[in-house]
């Protein structure tokens, strides 16, 4: 029996040596600790969330973040002399502006993701051979936009939106996107940022197109 135990232990050790990767330590961690480590953009926390948890809120999270972003853009279009009469046609027109802002934000994010997919498919085609690879990367990118939830306090309390605050949230989301790409495709640190840079170029191209059409974005 003792020999069997020793044999089993040696087999386990051989498996660990052949794998050469640490066991997911977050399996036994409290969800709050995992969330804190994800906010700190730790790669292993991202890997645990993406591969060892069953999260199916990708679409809902994406829509909610887009609604927050559209609401902030809509508020920035408001005049200080806004008429509070609910029957005012101008008020309804501005409400339609909210749906327009939601559509523009959706197109911008779509172009951003499209730029990332094109760059990664061009530079690492072996990583994106199957449809499931694209779906997994898309889910990772959608989850990594959770940083936009930082806009919720601003939406609730109607705080003054400063360019510094918006820039901070943007940078945080981009860092999360980079970690999601890196963990999903097992890449180095440089290539995800290169893909994000190309995605930003494509996104800004869409913004310029809307501006040439005379739309406020």
TrEMBL record:
One of its GO terms (biological process) is regulation of plasma membrane sterol distribution. It comes from the Eukaryota. Its main location: endoplasmic reticulum. The chain crosses the membrane at residues 101-122, 134-157, 164-184, 190-210. It is a multi-pass membrane protein. It is found in: Endoplasmic reticulum membrane. InterPro entries: Arv1 (IPR007290). Keywords: Endoplasmic reticulum, Lipid metabolism, Lipid transport, Membrane, Transmembrane, Transmembrane helix, Transport. The keyword Heme does not apply. It holds the Pfam family Arv1. GO terms for cellular component: cortical endoplasmic reticulum; endoplasmic reticulum membrane; Golgi apparatus. The keyword Ribosomal protein does not apply. Mediator of sterol homeostasis involved in sterol uptake, trafficking and distribution into membranes. Belongs to the ARV1 family. This is Protein ARV. The lineage of its organism: Eukaryota, Metazoa, Chordata, Craniata, Vertebrata.
